[in-house]
TrEMBL record:
GO terms for cellular component: membrane. The chain crosses the membrane at residues 6-27, 62-81, 93-121, 160-181. Keywords: Membrane, Transmembrane, Transmembrane helix. Pfam families: CCB3_YggT. This is YggT family protein. It comes from the Bacteria. InterPro entries: CCB3/YggT.
Length: 183
């Protein structure tokens, strides 16, 4: 029982931290101002790990490699802790694929939550600066859906479709992120 609670809490902590690391890399890619509140928040949470790595791993091609590598190491630790605390068997292929699947899981969860937050903000306060930021960050995922799905009487259903798609993909990715691969 205590092991399950600890596993649950560590899953939330590692999931949140990993998603913030990926968000930091995504914000860097979009070249948001370092003074943007979202950039400041991600830096405050992750600088203790990313700052030392950034001395050796310089950004290149619009990618903040220090944040990406930090997220990958966080995924490795999360997978190993999950397998150890859960006393679950692990296959070598499962342990090899699980950290990559964990990164994808965190990215999908971040996109899903971002779409939920953006939809609520756009209903409540369309002029809020964070609404614009979230729309900009989510637009690469929303634009293809908007091309296929027209608005209905001024209502944009693309965030809802994005949430459904990301959660369907999560059903496939979550078992892989836990190392459940039958090989």
């Amino acid at each position: 029982m205590l092991g399950s609670v600890l596993q649950y809490v560590l899953g939330i902590v590692f999931g949140f931290f990993g998603a913030v690391l990926l968000l930091r890399a995504w914000l860097y890619y979009w070249a948001l101002s370092p003074r943007h509140p979202l950039c400041e928040l991600t830096r405050k949470i992750t600088d203790w790990l990313v700052a030392p790595l950034s001395k050796a791993l310089k950004p290149k091609g619009g990618i903040d490699w220090a944040s990406v590598v930090a997220a990958f190491f966080t995924a490795i630790i999360a997978v190993l802790l999950h397998r150890t605390l859960g006393q679950l068997p692990a296959t070598p292929v499962g342990l090899l694929i699980a950290p990559f699947a964990m990164l994808l899981r965190w990215a999908l969860e971040m996109i899903s939550w971002g779409a939920i937050i953006w939809a609520v903000l756009s209903w409540v306060n369309r002029g809020h600066p964070m609404t614009y930021t979230l729309e900009m960050l989510l637009n690469p995922f929303l634009a293809p859906i908007r091309r296929v799905l027209p608005t209905f009487r001024g209502i944009d259903f693309s965030p809802l479709v994005l949430i459904v798609i990301t959660n369907a993909l999560l059903m496939l990715v979550v078992p892989l992120s836990r190392g459940f691969i039958l090989l």
